[in-house]
Each structure stands twice: as C-alpha cells, then as structure tokens.
Amino acid sequence: MTNESIGTPLPATQSRTQLPATQLRTQLPATQSPKRLPAPQPPPQPPTAQPSTAQIPTTLPPAGLPTIQAMARTVRDAEDPRIIRIVAIVDAMINRGPVDQLIVPIRPRLATLRPPRPLRFARLLFHPLERLVVPAARWRPGQKALPRTALRPMADHVRLTMGPAATAIEAEIAGHTTAETALIVRLGRSLWPAAAPILAAGTMPATWNTTALGEPAYRALAAAVAALLAEAPALDTLCSASVADLLPPTAETVTSLLARVAKSDRAALPMMITLLLDRLPEAAGLLPTAREGQQA
Questions:
Q1: Contact 87, 115 (CB under 8 A)
Q2: 8 Å CB contact between 124 and 131
Q3: pTM to 2 decimals?
Q4: Are 191 and 214 in contact (CB under 8 A)?
C-alpha cells in the first residue's frame, strides 16, 4: 500500500493528541473576578420577650370603661417617655370621656415628671392651687384639699360668668402649654382675682351634679377657692421675690397675707399655709410670729 492510498502522513514532529498551549489554558474574562463565598452569618438569636409596657398603644381608639381600666393598669408601670406620650395623646382629645381614667394611676408620677400640658382655662384658673388637688376618691368633707372632680364645674362656671373676658383669655392661651410660666403669671394675675367673687357668690353651677359631691360641699369648696384665688397674685409676688433674693419674706408680710385669707374664709387658712410652705419652705420660721400677730 502506497502513501497516496492512506493520505498525507503527519509530520514527524507533531502528534495527533498535541494541542497548542494557548488552547490548554482556560482564562477568565478581564471583567470577571473569582466568586467569593459569602461570609458566615451568626446563628439567629431567639426572640426576646417584650416588657408589658410595649403593649401600650400610641393611639387610643374609643373604648368602654372596663377596657380603659385594664389599660390603666398597664400604663401605671410604663417607662417615663411612654407615659409622657400617652398623656400627650389624651390631652389632645377634645372629649376624653372614660379615656381620662388612663391618667388617674399616673398622676403622682406626673407631679414629678411635670410634662408640658396644653394650657386650658381650667388649668390656668387652678394653677396656683394644684398642690391642694387630690383624687375625688380620697377626698372627704372638711379635708383641707380640693377634689379633682370639682375643678371643671367651677372653671366652667367662672368662664361662663366672665363671658367675653374669658373668651379673650382662651384665645390667648390657645396653642400654649403649662411650661410657659411667664404667660401663666401674666394672665393669672388678672384671672384669679376676677374669679374669686364669682365663686364667693355661692351660685352652684348646674354641672356640679356630675361630681356627686353635693351642694354643701360646693359652698365650702367655692368659698375656700375664692379666698385662695383672691390672694394668689400676692402669694406669687412674695414667693417670686424671695426666691430671687430680692425681698426676703418678713413676718409682717406673711401675717398680712394669712390674715386676709382668714378674714375671707377661715377654713382656707390651712390651705394657704400649705401653698406658702410648698413654694417657700423658709417661711416656716415666720409662722409662729404670724400666728401671734393674728391673735393680737
């Protein structure tokens, strides 16, 4: 058999299984980098139990009294920031209804936290007497304190009797809060003495029946509140000047203040002493001298 019958032979230097070196190397495109395995992830943590206060809503849907009372028990143990948020939500309601019960168990903490609250007519009127206010359930006739349920009927009575003057005050305090002390003092020094004779007149407002305190309680409370509000500007001036070290209190000043209160309503005298010592504890040393002056 000749070479022509089997085709052209391969050159001696080239093998059938030998390929060019460029075909033996596998190259990645220039724009592609080697893939990296993802970094190991930490094992998932088991869910932690949320405190009971996490269940307190930030908005309050309409609810009946039993539901509100159940929520109030949760609110009692809430953290301070959550309490402030809840109070702000309740304050923003035009008609609180039973939702107001949410505030009842946290009032002692509010006295310490003192968050800014919307400045409304009733708050402005009773601002100098806040130290005397107690829950209605704890109040008893003859107690030297003011049941909280008595405040709104009295404030509404004063507001309606003052007419346009009260409307002007409400317009001026709209959008302001209890943190604005200068505004409270400026408006209060005209409101408090104006409200005193209205309450001293003894006319019981129709809404007083909602308090279930009775007419005799109104007469006594209204007379005491009238005596205290009449002297609220004088008390504020005395305490402000003393705190600023402008004019330390004297026995004569304290005696005169207490004598005017006693003349108006003697039952209000212990209340005024409470207010005085709450704002000006150093006046305690002047009280024996003041009592001697009244007896003389």
A1: yes
A2: no
A3: 0.66
A4: no
